[in-house]
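Kindly draft a sequence, keeping tokens residue-aligned:
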Amino acid sequence: MVGWFGLDVDIRAKFKGVGMKKVIIAALLAASSGSASASLGSKPGEMVGAWEVETVIDGFSDTKRGITHTKLGADGFLAVKCDKPGLGSLYLTFFTPKYLGSDRISSRVHGAKYRLDDAPAQDLPSPYYDGKAASIIGNKATDLLKGLAISSPKRFRAQFLTYDNDLAEIDVDVTGAANAIYKTAAICEDTAFVQ
């Protein structure tokens, strides 16, 4: 059975865990059922390179949200989305199979780096940790999205320092990032960063 993010049940089972990941899995499972999909108004995703771009329409307000994500790899995946449309609404979330920590419990600074293709590694700007997810919001997300869109890399790697000083890494194919991000930005009405 294929779900909202194009993930099948066997792959989702691999990521069963604690905290936010359970919520995400429950949402994915609910979205894959017929009645849930109908009430969410989710349109089938369009493949753009290694990304799937989706439009979700809120059943109460008819507000459109854009969500694009890379294919799920053994290390996790990367998603670009907005919760509600408007300027500055786009953000990035990295999903890993390892528990990263929670900023609700600890406010310590997390070490995170990323690398596009074979370019030198750079610091990832202050990700917000929530379980197995790390999100980058606001202007920091805009700068990173702009870099992804302009450089059009094929490979994105990120490394996160977890709550117990272990390392969690993702390595994903991001071919077609520029087109996928632009499409999501248009759905989210947040295209100012392109200029």
Summary: Residues 1-40 have pLDDT under 50 and may be disordered.
